[in-house]
C-alpha cells in the first residue's frame, strides 16, 4: 500500500479508500439538486395555484437546472483530471452493474439537462434577477419537451433510488465500506495530485 493510499484509508471501513473532497462535494450537490428539482417539477403545480409564487418557484427551477448542468459537466471533468480513482473492490458482476448504473445516471442527467435547456429556450423563461431567455423555436414543442423531460426525470429518480438502496445494502448488510467512500466528513485531503 502506498503512502497516498494509506492516507486515504478509512479505519472504520476495513481499508476502504475514500474519495477526495471535490468528488464528494460534487456528488452530494448533484444528488441534492436532482432531488429538489424533481420535487419542484413533480409537485409544484399540485401544491400552489397559479400566481407570482408559483412563477417564482418555476424560475428557480430553471435557475437550479442551469446550476445542475454546470455540476454534471464539472463532475466527470473533475473525476478524470483531479479526482481520486479508487481501486475496484469486486471486479465481478456487481462491479459491472455499478458501472452500468453510473453510466445510466450520467446519461440520464445529460438528457434531462438537454431537454430542460431546450424547454427553457422554447418557453423563454425568466432567470435569476433581470436575466431572461428569449423564446426561441416553435411553442408547440413546449408540451412534448415537458413530457420527455419529466419522464426522464422520473426514470432518473427510480435509478437513483436503486443506486441509494445498493449503497445501503453495502453499508448495512455487507459492511464493506463502499458507502463510507463517498460520505462527507470521511474524506482524504483535497488535492489536484492524481491518485
Q: Provide the domain count.
A: 1
CATH topology: Fumarate Reductase Cytochrome B subunit
CATH C-level category: Mainly Alpha
CATH superfamily: Transmembrane di-heme cytochromes, Chain C
Shape: elongated
Give the strand tally: 0
Compressed to H and E, one letter per element, the order equals HHHHH
| Helical proportion, percent range | 55-70%
Q: What is the CATH architecture annotation?
A: Up-down Bundle
Give a quick account of the main beta sheet: strands, pairing sense, barrel closure: none
Distance between the termini: 12 Å
User: What integer value in Å does the Rg equal?
Assistant: 19 Å
Task: Kindly estimate the percentage of residues that lie in beta strands according to DSSP.
Answer: under 5%
Derived structural class: mainly alpha
Amino acid at each position: 500500500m502506498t503512502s497516498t493510499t494509506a492516507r486515504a484509508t478509512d479505519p472504520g471501513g476495513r481499508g476502504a479508500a475514500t474519495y477526495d473532497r471535490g468528488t464528494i462535494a460534487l456528488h452530494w450537490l448533484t444528488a441534492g439538486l436532482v432531488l429538489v428539482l424533481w420535487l419542484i417539477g413533480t409537485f409544484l403545480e399540485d401544491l400552489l395555484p397559479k400566481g407570482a409564487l408559483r412563477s417564482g418557484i418555476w424560475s428557480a427551477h430553471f435557475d437550479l437546472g442551469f446550476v445542475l448542468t454546470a455540476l454534471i459537466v464539472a463532475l466527470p471533468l473533475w473525476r478524470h483530471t483531479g479526482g481520486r480513482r479508487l481501486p475496484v473492490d469486486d471486479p465481478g458482476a456487481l462491479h459491472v452493474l455499478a458501472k452500468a448504473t453510473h453510466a445510466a445516471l450520467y446519461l440520464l442527467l445529460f438528457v434531462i439537462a438537454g431537454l430542460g435547456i431546450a424547454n427553457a429556450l422554447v418557453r423563454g423563461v425568466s432567470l435569476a434577477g433581470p436575466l431572461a431567455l428569449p423564446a426561441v423555436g416553435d411553442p408547440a414543442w413546449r408540451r412534448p419537451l415537458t413530457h420527455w423531460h419529466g419522464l426522464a426525470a422520473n426514470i432518473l429518480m427510480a435509478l437513483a433510488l436503486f443506486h441509494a438502496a445498493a449503497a445501503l445494502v453495502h453499508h448495512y448488510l455487507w459492511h464493506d465500506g463502499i458507502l463510507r467512500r463517498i460520505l462527507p466528513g470521511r474524506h482524504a485531503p483535497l488535492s489536484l495530485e492524481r491518485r
